[in-house]
Amino acid sequence: MNRFQLLSFFCGSWCLAAAAAPAPPDTIAERAKPCLSCHAADGKTGKFEYYPRLHGKPKGYLFNQMLNFRDGRRSNRPMALLTQNLSDVYLAEIAGYFAAQEPRYPTAKDLTHETPAPTLIKQGDLARNIPACTTCHGKSLLGVAPNIPGLLGLPSDYVSAQMGAWKVATRRAPAPDCMGEIAKQLSDIEVNAVATWLAAQPLPANPHPAPALTEALPLKCGSVPDIALASRKP
Amino acid sequence: MRQRARYCPGESQAVKRAFIIFIAGTALLFGFLVIVIVLNESENDTSALATSTVANFVDPQTRGAYLARAGNCAGCHTVQGGQPYAGGRELPTPFGTFVTPNITPHHVSGIGIWTAQDFWRAMQHGKGRDGKLLYPAFPYTEYTKVTREDSDAIFSYLQTIAPAENAVAPDRLRFPYNIRALLYVWRALYFKPGAYELVANQTPEWNRGAYLVQGLGHCNACHATRNALGAAGGAALGGGQVAGHSWYAPSLTSRAEAGNADVPIEEIIALLSTGQSSKTAASGPMAEVIWQSLQHLSAPDVRAMAVYLKSLPDSSAAKSAPSELTADARQRIAKGSKIYEKHCKDCHGTAGEGAPGAYPPLADNRSVTLPSPLNTIRSVLDGGFAPSTASNPRPYGMPPFAHSLSSEEVALVVSYARNSWGNRASLVTAVEVDKTGSD
């Protein structure tokens, strides 16, 4: 009679289960493993949809999106089910883990045809109260820590799908929902142009979000607290 | 002649018989109505039989907050991401969709103008403030066992929360279930107002557990089979599919399902308070109940529930020797092992042994071998995390596989897990996987 048989003889399968297997690593990396089944370091397209990368995105942004899924402001069934019984503290830890990972960006494509995108992205359209993307998402469009995501290295389908979701309010953020307001101003042609242009941009050598905002946001955003700038005010 | 023929003796007898049948039928119907009305209208105040329960609370509101957690009132009366208790959550059922009411103290859209007596009447008798009969989606069939003292405490707590102006949409029930008057008949058949009666030869701890399980905890609302009219039929806690959900709530009495007769008390307590024991992790609606309710209960209360659950007599049928697997079944199981190897082995182990505290074992795990494969299919499709709780704040999780495995692959791998390492249960087909709902 071996050790396991002896154990199971005395206390049934209860202690056998406890005795037989080694404990997994007690790390956040081990705990975040289920996320990787969809979210690769460079994003990937699955059976039903595109799964954006989480690696290297700002922590506050990732955390806010998990709350949005959990509380029904963004609609994605798997994400709602996975986050529904998890505490804010734990979700923040998972967000921090992915924010600290190195992203892998896909190679950019060439873009030759004429497009309204660069003007909209770099200057906005003041007449329609559309700020330039660069004022919030960073001069190099790589995002600003801790709450604003980068816009490069994403497939155009994903960006235009998010814009469409904001237009019809199936993607929302806590009010005031600044991106919702902006997306509703854009025509379908502009959405497509912006998404295509962004997807075609090459990535700089060090593609990380800027450390902090350098000026006040042109619009109020519920996901970006004003206090982010408090330290800069005289 | 024709006229006369109509009054021939034989026919007159028939008329008389018809008349008697009519009178008797009317009398029966009348008698039935009287019984139905008497059964519905009697509101004997049974609060005198109340057992004194939770001690050590500074005031009734704090006590009420605790008890509202124990009854998980917020679980149904809160919409996803909404203000707790402001109602609006949709409950899909075979009879249509119920929309839960706002129970914050708002004077127009909540229960701000209710009195403790009104609230007690809802809990004890299943009637609204205006006397209208409530649908048993509100589990007054269980709450009727809650004491007056506890009902008043919960009410006094609910009156202290912020009033939410949230007028909820009406229920969307199908005909004939939308005829509220039919509840008179339903209640005559299936509902008797009552109270928890102390079992004299049991300990106070056992009685406390029974009171929580049968009353506020309303465990039977899910863990019992519901009949065609939505009433919990069959044995109490005997297991059944959760109404409106593609989840099976296992029997809490059967050794073959989730009965606790053989389970060490510490294991029962661990599962109830942390969502995880050495053998299993709570998933689906049970994970939600632990997240919202059970993890907040005091250690003595969880222990009391465990003591009561462990004492329930085993209801399982004697195990018959499993029949020989067919060649086709063995082939399907072998195909499933390839999928297991690729997607499941890293966490659940080569021999289905799992990893303690993180990944539940699949070998000798009753949740895997339940007669209904529903929960195992759902776990593979949806994945999920055990709830964050005080003693397990950072639970490990399982990825969903709905996006990466086909229905046939899910069927094969579930069949493999149900028939390996000593497990033995029915094989699963792709059709069963396809028919699995998403609620």
Largest interface (CB within 8 Å) is between:
A-B, 38 and 46 residues
Regions of chain A with pLDDT < 50 over 5+ consecutive residues?
A: 1-19, 228-234
CATH uppermost class of the largest domain in chain A: Mainly Alpha
- Report, as a whole number of angstroms, the end-to-end distance of chain A: 78 Å
CATH topology description of the largest domain in chain A: Cytochrome Bc1 Complex, Chain D, domain 2
Strand neighbour order, sheet with most strands of chain B: 1-2-3
Overall pLDDT level of chain B: 90
Give short descriptive properties of this protein.
A: 234 residues; Cytochrome Bc1 Complex, Chain D, domain 2; 2 domains; 10 helices; B: 439 residues; mainly alpha; 3 domains; two-stranded antiparallel ribbon; 7 strands; globular; disordered N terminus
Describe this structure in words.
The complex is a heterodimer of chains A (234) and B (439). Chain A is mostly helical and 234 residues long. Chain A has helices spanning 3-20, 28-31, 59-70, 77-83, 88-99, 117-123, 133-137, 156-167, 178-185, 188-200; strands at residues 44-45, 50-51. Chain A folds into 2 domains: 29-104, Orthogonal Bundle (Cytochrome Bc1 Complex, Chain D, domain 2), CATH 1.10.760; 108-222, Orthogonal Bundle (Cytochrome Bc1 Complex, Chain D, domain 2). Chain A has a two-stranded antiparallel sheet with strand order 1-2. In chain A, strand 1 (44-45) and strand 2 form a beta hairpin. In chain A, helix 3 packs across helix 5, helix 6 packs across helix 10 and helix 8 packs across helix 9. Chain A is globular, with a radius of gyration of 22 Å. Chain B is mostly helical and 439 residues long. Helix content of chain B is 41%, strand content 4%. Chain B contains 17 helices and 7 strands. Chain B has helices at 2-6, 9-41, 60-70, 73-76, 116-125, 140-143, 148-158, 182-190, 204-214, 265-274, 284-292, 299-311, 327-343, 345-348, 374-382, 407-418, 430-435, and strands at 90-93, 96-99, 172-173, 240-241, 248-249, 384-385, 397-398. A 3-stranded antiparallel sheet of chain B has the order 1-2-3, with no helix packed on it. In chain B, strands 4-5 form a two-stranded antiparallel ribbon. A two-stranded antiparallel sheet of chain B has the order 6-7. In chain B, strand 4 and strand 5 (248-249) form a beta hairpin. In chain B, helix 9 (204-214) crosses helix 12. The radius of gyration of chain B is 26 Å and the shape is globular. Chain B starts with a helix and ends with a helix. Mean pLDDT of chain B is 90; it is low at 1-7 and 45-52. Chains A and B meet through helix 1, helix 2, helix 4 and helix 5 of A and helix 11, strand 6 and strand 7 of B.
